[in-house]
Design goal:
The structure holds two protein chains of two kinds.
Chain A (H helix, E strand, L loop, with lengths): L2 H11 L5 H13 L1 H19 L8 H10 L20 H27 L6 E7 L5 E7 L4 E6 L9 E8 L7 E6 L5 E4 L11 E8 L12 E8 L3
Helix pairs in contact in A: 1-3, 2-3
Chain B lengths: L10 H9 L3 H23 L2 H18 L10 H18 L18 H11 L5 H7 L3 H12 L4 H8 L3 H19 L1
Helix pairs in contact in B: 1-2, 2-3, 2-4, 3-4, 5-7, 6-9, 7-9, 8-9
């Protein structure tokens, strides 16, 4: 554990790492148990500070509101779960950009889809290139843990690399692989059993070694990413 | 529903029941933990409506993701605290949601320094955390606590403490490293 690791652990637990730093750090947490244990330890030690907030009386109506929503999968009022970085506004900006591109693309795109299939995606994400300027792929996510991926513009892959699709259902679960592919064409992928996709859920495509990421978490460069929205 | 008296069950034992779809287990967890989590969220957000929104999201997330809780990696209390803190910080960083009517900035909303001192004073004298926080320089201690207890980011902490951004960053870094070494 280097002093720099200690700094990152502390800043991460305090919610101070910015977007790419937090993402890199979470990728390390997934593959370095010692680091993850140090994060868990610091969190547990700081718990007594949270406890100094005491307890507030809870309005019984709050439970009623929760109970009323337990049967509504992918409820739109649920906020995206990943921790928004302290000093990073890029996400909000990109989400706005993604939304506007989404409108432009999805209208014509969905119209076409309706003619050929009766399956309706519950969420759609337009994945943008890292600088947020170009749509690189469209993900349609269905309620049965499958996605339909439509590549639009993906960086060519080296011969020893494959494309791998990821989603982040929530930060506690961490990134989950939806599958790998080597030929950028429209395709269907079937992911593991996950909660229904929610608005704001992150989807991304990374370049990984042949056979997929050796760690089960993204290790290679992110080519495109975007947040899910429910179709109107 | 919440008035039903049930024998106390540890959160660790409620979560598997929640994962298998038992609503009464979720209601019990809510009854046991919501007051504490609401206080954590409200200290960060300072608005009751937003704090309640956070609690609502946390319990809906518990309902949907209870199966992802791994008791070998920490306590259920800790899991709930982290979810609550993350969601409260998300709202806090999402400027659009924090549109205080009279245009106050967050740093002007009450005295965050006072919140931090109250939190520190409330720590038990026997708590190793208190001992290790006391061992820090006052400025580093306050910088770390402003970020953790009240959820300020570097910039807001710098404004509150009236020092340059670089100074806050270095205080926080050195503070968290010293804290971990002391607590080791």
């Amino acid at each position: 554990m280097t002093p720099q690791d200690r700094e990152h652990i502390g800043e991460y637990v305090l919610g101070l790492l910015d977007g790419s730093e937090a993402q890199d750090f979470e990728a390390r947490l997934a593959s370095e148990p010692e680091l993850a244990a140090a994060v868990a330890k610091l969190r547990a030690q700081l718990q007594s500070l949270d406890d100094t907030a005491g307890e507030l009386p809870v309005d019984p109506a709050l439970w009623q509101r929760i109970a009323a929503r337990l049967d509504v999968p992918g409820d739109e009022q649920v906020q995206p779960a990943p921790l928004r970085p302290a000093n990073d506004n890029r996400w909000t900006r990109r989400l706005g950009m993604a939304a506007s591109i989404l409108v432009a693309l999805a209208v014509g795109y969905l119209t076409g889809t309706n003619l050929t299939t009766s399956r309706q995606p519950v969420m759609i994400a337009v994945l943008l290139t890292e600088d947020g300027s170009e749509p690189g792929a469209i993900v349609e996510a269905f309620a049965d843990d499958t996605i339909r991926l439509v590549p639009l513009d993906l960086t060519a892959r080296p011969a020893d690399r494959v494309y791998q699709v990821w989603t982040l259902p929530d930060p506690e679960t961490g990134p989950v692989s939806m599958g790998i592919f080597d030929d950028p064409a429209t395709l269907s992928l079937s992911g593991p059993d996950l909660p229904p996709p929610e608005p704001g859920q992150l989807y991304e495509i990374t370049l990984e070694p042949s056979g997929g990421s050796p760690t089960g978490r993204p290790t290679g460069p992110i080519l495109v990413k975007g947040f899910a929205k429910s179709p109107l | 529903m919440l008035c039903t008296m049930k024998p106390h069950t540890a959160p660790e034992d409620l979560i598997p029941q929640i994962a298998s779809g038992e609503r009464t287990a979720l209601a019990q967890l809510f009854e046991a933990e919501s007051g504490r989590l609401l206080a954590v969220a409200q200290r960060i957000l300072r608005r009751r409506d937003l704090a309640e929104e956070v609690i609502q999201e946390v319990f809906l997330a518990v309902w949907r993701n209870a199966a992802s809780f791994d008791r070998t990696k920490g306590t259920a209390r800790g899991w709930l605290t982290v979810m609550t803190r993350n969601r409260a910080l998300n709202l806090l960083r999402d400027g659009a949601r924090m549109d205080y009517k009279d245009g106050e900035t967050l740093a002007e909303l009450g005295d965050r320094t006072a919140d931090v001192r109250a939190a520190f004073d409330a720590l038990s004298a026997r708590d190793a955390l208190r001992h290790c926080l006391e061992a820090l320089d006052a400025s580093k201690r306050e910088a770390v606590l402003l970020c953790y207890v009240t959820g300020l980011n570097h910039g807001e902490a710098a404004a509150t403490m009236r020092v340059p951004l670089g100074t806050i960053k270095s205080w926080v870094r050195r503070g968290v490293v010293a804290l971990q070494e002391c607590l080791a």
